[in-house]
Amino acid sequence: MSASYQHTQSVQPTAPSPTLTEDMTGRPSPSPLQYAFSGKTSAHAGRGGQPPFAAEVAQQQLTNLFGTPVKAQGKRALYVHIPFCRVRCSFCNFFKYASSPQLMEQYFQCLLVDLERKAAQPWSQSQPFDAVYIGGGTPTDLTAEQIYSLGERIRAWLPLRDDCEITLEGRLNKFNQHKFERALAGGFNRFSFGVQSFDTQVRKAAKRLDDRETLLKQLKSLTASNSATIAIDLMYGLPHQTTQSWQQDLEDTLESGVDGVDLYQLLNFQGTGIQRALDNGQLDSLMDTPQRALLYRQGADYLNQAGLKQLSYCHWASTDKERSRYNRLAKSGAEILAVGAGAGGNIGGLSYMQPRDIEPWQTALEANQWPVAMMMAKGKQHQRNARIVGACDQGAVSAELLGEQRFKHAIPLFSAWQQNGLAMLDDEKVTLTLAGQFWSVNMANGLLAYLNENPLAA
Ligand code: SF4
């Protein structure tokens, strides 16, 4: 994703004085990486839509959608949610239920009902799925037989492409050889482990289990088997992290032999253990956004110089096995079939959330209703917007993607990005600089706001 400057004289804005705000353009700064915006506007770009439907309308909408085979050939994925964790990590505000074998078995049986019912619908059967993602929570806390059974049922009940990416997310802790083998037998071909940091002190403070040596040994064993894609998440901005410990995390990542790595910024820690530690004085302070930005640059530079392939602003692949297909589809607005309590889906221009609590989700299933807590239409521009979000995520917005006329129309914004050190503009595309990649969510939101507030003349 290296940016290269070419001439810009031949591309001219079509509107004389469009509305441009600092939220769209960023602000001038000697260090745009650190100061172009005051903070990340949200964890993901392009969220939002119309007001939610009333419950009975949502039921009817889903019945209509699921009952209709799709004609379009867009990509689609399945997301299955497992809302259990054994320990709550200090930075997490996703934790929902403590893992217990009884509760998980009860949940698992309901999950199969949800899955089978949705899989049987004409919508689901009419086109193969490109990716499956079992996320959480900690899906690897399922038993070996539950993991096997889930993979097997998904493959039996849903049409999947031959090269479908089937990911199991989770922790390395207690993910033993037997579980790995049963997961492989069930059809899983990709594993995504939350490591966050290899540093034992950072891990302890974050309430992560296992020390550095244990993690490295386990990852090396998994990758040496060469039987699946192994990816990990790292997080920057955690308490006790330093430039040196982050560097060691990056080096450990390469040493572990994993096929892919995500670099995530610590965000949205309100209501977490970190927030409580700050409030009660156990923790003096946290890195601010400009400090975290420097860690992002350190990580991106290191991984790029090591020859990894950058697949998005935050994801790198070290082998061709890693495709990160589910994440790419989800970020670019592909249709997602959601299964499980707390799962979020997106089909037919509608987004929907299933109840976060198990009880209402289970009650709806038992009443033969769709378990839906909230549903809304995504707005008529949702496909274009999703393409923009996906393009910013991957570091460049092209005239081809945006349409020649709209690309020219957005040149005042792109020029401002360039002046602020966030992008490089040429006739065919605007390419985010490293600083722009760090702020890619803000920039995607900025471009969407620009197009919204400065509509193209009909
Ligand atoms: S394992 Fe994941 S979902 Fe569970 S508490 Fe930790 S970060 Fe949150």
TrEMBL record:
One GO BP annotation of this record: methylation
NCBIfam families reported in the protein's UniProt record: rSAM_HutW
Composition skew (Polar residues), residue ranges: 1-22
Domain Radical SAM core: 70-306
Protein keywords: Methyltransferase, Transferase
Span list, region Disordered: 1-51
InterPro entries per record: Coproporphyrinogen-III_oxidase (IPR034505), Elp3/MiaA/NifB-like_rSAM (IPR006638), HutW (IPR026332), rSAM (IPR007197), rSAM_sf (IPR058240)
Stated name of the protein: Heme anaerobic degradation radical SAM methyltransferase ChuW/HutW
Organism name: Corallincola holothuriorum
Keyword rRNA processing found: no
Pfam families (alphabetical): Radical_SAM
Domain of life of the organism encoding this protein: Bacteria
Molecular function GO terms recorded: 4 iron, 4 sulfur cluster binding; methyltransferase activity
GO CC terms, sorted: cytoplasm
